[in-house]
Design goal:
By secondary structure, this protein is of the alpha/beta class. The protein has nine helices and five strands. Strands 2-3-1-4-5 form a five-stranded parallel sheet, with helices on both faces. The relative contact order is 0.23. It binds adenosine-5'-triphosphate (ATP). The site of adenosine-5'-triphosphate has 12 residues, from helix 1. It comes from Aedes albopictus. Its EC number is 2.7.4.2. InterPro entries: P-loop_NTPase, Pmev_kin_anim. It is found in: Cytoplasm, Cytosol.
């Protein structure tokens, strides 16, 4: 069996709901191309396990529609229990899909997620924090939800200040400039 591919760079993206993690990482992938780069999500193995457990439609759960929101709170609670036993439980599964030179993880939410990737990939890891004002996030459809916006999965990284790159993604932001700055991290 051949050795698993170790990515040259692993970019970790975090930021609060509707700050633009999916938007920016998808645009980044277009620039980097799928030959060189790929996006993985820690939420993928969480949703896969959850869908199997309850017999739900995984495609709907992975999408951005109401299905995902309906189960978000319960999935957070259930996945937190799993993480309490093993903080790398879902990160490890997500990493199994890493086969390209540049890995982009689009949904880092906890200090233990960062810890896992640093332990696994060392100096190959670069962190990107995306911020957007509450006003912008509301325009994009965000509403405060008890049990979602006030729990660890949303707030654990709020007090972290050391990021390789901090990006402001408010409405009217210069997306090309943002993407160029992110790209300079992977040179
Ligand atoms: N710079 C931008 N310009 C235009 N639209 C944007 C920009 N950033 C984000 N959006 C839009 O805002 C909405 C929310 O963004 P996105 O889904 O990327 O957020 P997210 O951080 O991934 O949210 P969640 O944590 O809820 O999954 C999407 O419709 C997206 O297209």
């Amino acid at each position: 069996m051949s050795d698993p591919v170790v990515p040259r760079i692993v970019l970790l993206f975090s930021g609060k709901r509707k700050c633009g993690k999916d938007f920016l990482t998808e645009r980044l992938l277009q620039r980097l191309t799928t030959d060189k780069a790929q996006i993985i999500r820690i939420s993928e193995p969480i949703k896969r396990s959850w869908a199997e457990k309850l017999g739900l439609d995984l495609k709907e759960l992975l999408g951005d529609g109401p299905y995902k929101e309906r189960y978000r709170k319960e999935m957070i609670e259930w996945s937190d229990q799993k993480r309490a036993e093993d903080y790398g439980y879902f990160c490890r599964q997500a990493c199994q899909g890493l086969t390209k030179e540049i890995g982009v993880v689009s949904d880092i939410r906890r200090k233990t997620d960062v810890r896992f990737f640093r332990e696994q990939y060392g100096a190959r890891v670069k962190t990107v924090r995306i911020v957007a004002s509450e006003g912008t996030r509301v325009e994009r459809g965000w509403t405060f939800q008890n049990g979602v916006d006030d729990v660890q999965s949303e707030c654990d990284l709020d007090d972290v200040t050391e990021w390789d790159l901090l990006v402001e993604n408010d409405s009217g932001a210069d997306v090309d400039d943002i993407l160029a700055r992110i790209e300079s991290l992977v040179q």
